[in-house]
From TrEMBL:
Keyword Transcription regulation belongs to the record: no
Protein name as annotated: Glutamine ABC transporter substrate-binding protein
Pfam families to which the protein is assigned, alphabetical: SBP_bac_3 (PF00497)
Location(s) in or outside the cell: Cell envelope
Length: 268
């Protein structure tokens, strides 16, 4: 009798354990898209490129324009995503090696990158801009960078631009752009050059005594990245165009930038 009762207890415990495991497997991981019933792809993204992708310290989840956009694209295309954040260099390398399926990180489409990476249609128009101390009247534009200490993020188009166009400036690169802004605020740099939306956002929201200087430099476009010859490119392009046409893209754009890029009606 005791043996039968013990067996009954064991069976019930095993049943409860399996039920709990089943419940856990249905929950999406932090920052991932819901289960659409399709394939699951890994998305590599930058770990700190405000307002495109950044970690919400309160929720522990990635947020930003890029994050919302890739989730909407995944929903429209009928696949699931798992988001992994890393330094920008890791996103580029991950696309080149095929380690990740998709990369979205405010990545500028360049001819050099297109040799080893495939891109979606452009999804954001960008460029480069200077930030300087608010009391700096000496640097009015890029023409005033000779002999100045100019910081930017390593591995980016802004680094390439400074090297090619301002060899007489002292270029200092950082693994993250926030470190460059901090050195500018502390007086260790004379200027920072980086992507327009990030410079404008930081100056307006997070800086202590910084301002922008000069005009927008080198018009650029961001694209979603893929390993070479990826079959996902056409599906993502089709989904992206649908989101533009039905107003979903503008809904996301307005949430992060305060205006509607294409002037479409809200999808809601």
């Amino acid at each position: 009798m005791k043996a039968k009762w013990y067996l009954f207890i064991m069976v019930m415990a095993l049943s409860l354990l399996l039920a709990a495991c089943g419940s856990d497997s249905e929950a999406g991981s932090s920052g991932d898209s819901g289960d659409s019933g399709g394939e699951t792809y890994t998305v590599a993204t930058d770990n700190n490129f405000v307002p495109f992708e950044f970690m919400n310290e309160e929720t522990g989840e990635m947020e930003g324009f890029d994050i919302d956009l890739i989730k909407a694209i995944a929903d429209e295309a009928g696949f699931n995503i798992e988001i992994e954040s890393m330094k920008f260099d890791g996103v580029v390398a991950g696309m080149q090696s095929g380690r990740y399926d998709i990369g979205i990180a405010g990545m500028t489409i360049t001819e050099e990158r297109k040799e080893t990476i495939d891109f979606s249609d452009p999804y954001y128009d960008a460029g480069l801009m200077l930030a300087v101390s608010a009391d700096n009247d000496e640097i009015q534009s890029e023409e005033d960078l000779a002999g100045k200490k100019v910081g930017t993020r390593s591995g980016t188009t802004s680094e390439t631009y400074i090297r090619e166009n301002h060899p007489d400036a002292e270029l200092i690169t950082f693994p993250g752009i926030v470190e460059a802004y901090m050195d500018l605020e502390s007086g260790r740099l004379d200027a920072v050059m980086y992507d327009v939306p990030n410079v404008q956002y930081y100056v307006a929201n997070d800086s202590e005594g910084l301002k922008t200087a000069g005009d927008i430099l080198q018009g650029e476009q961001y694209g979603i990245a893929f390993p070479k010859d990826s079959e996902l490119v056409s599906d993502v392009n089709e989904a992206l165009q649908t989101l533009i046409d039905n107003g979903t893209y503008d809904d996301i754009y307005e949430e992060w930038f305060g205006e509607r890029k294409y002037g479409t009606e809200s999808s809601e």
